[in-house]
Amino acid sequence: MSDRQIALLELVCLSVESAGVTIDSALIKSSFAAVEPHGSDVTAYFYAHLFEHNPDVRKLFAEHLNDQQDRLWAAISTLVDKLDDTDTVVEVLQGLGRRHAGYGALPEHFPAVGASLLAALAHFAGDAWAPETAAAWTALYGVVAEVMGGALTEAAAG
């Protein structure tokens, strides 16, 4: 990982910590274990929520979402599985950010995506979802948005 990547991740982590929120890896993983059996239902719910609340982003996606749902599920699973491996997580997120630049995604889309992701996770987590769980996922998504958004912005500019 480059010095710039490390500095970016440290800055994001510091801003998350200063907001009084921490990324609780164990809580993320245990809540994901409750959601994981629902797989494609989670991503279907995510996209339905996203398009219902943000119809303007629908045009950025293919008509049929089956492959996209599979890719999203794989990305979330990888993120959770590799959560304690910062180098791998940053590499994956930067790659996703660069690819999303080519799809027409913009940094201002990230809040809507985050809200829909949290809604989908909460819907399927059941009793495993509590205020602390929401806070942990919100903190994690903040890092995701910062790292992906940085790579997206760089790719779009260059």
Secondary-structure topology with pairs:
Blueprint: H1 3-18, H2 25-35, H3 39-53, H4 66-81, H5 86-102, H6 110-125, H7 131-157
Helix pairs in contact: 1-7, 2-7, 3-4, 3-6, 5-7, 6-7
Q: How does this model look, in words?
A:
75% of the residues lie in helices and 0% in strands. The protein is an all-alpha fold and 158 residues long. Helix 2 packs across helix 7. The longest helix has 27 residues, at 131-157. The radius of gyration is 15 Å and the shape is globular. It has helices at residues 3-18, 25-35, 39-53, 66-81, 86-102, 110-125, 131-157.
Anisotropy-based shape: globular
Computed Rg: 15 Å
**How many DSSP H or I helices?**
7
The run of helices and strands is HHHHHHH
Kindly estimate the percentage of residues that lie in beta strands according to DSSP: under 5%
E-strand count: 0
Helical coverage, percent range: over 70%
Largest sheet: none
Mean pLDDT: 87
Provide a short characterization of the protein structure.
This protein has 158 residues and is mainly alpha-helical. The protein has seven helices and no strands.
Comma- or semicolon-separated keywords:
158 residues; mainly alpha; 7 helices; 75% helix; disordered N terminus
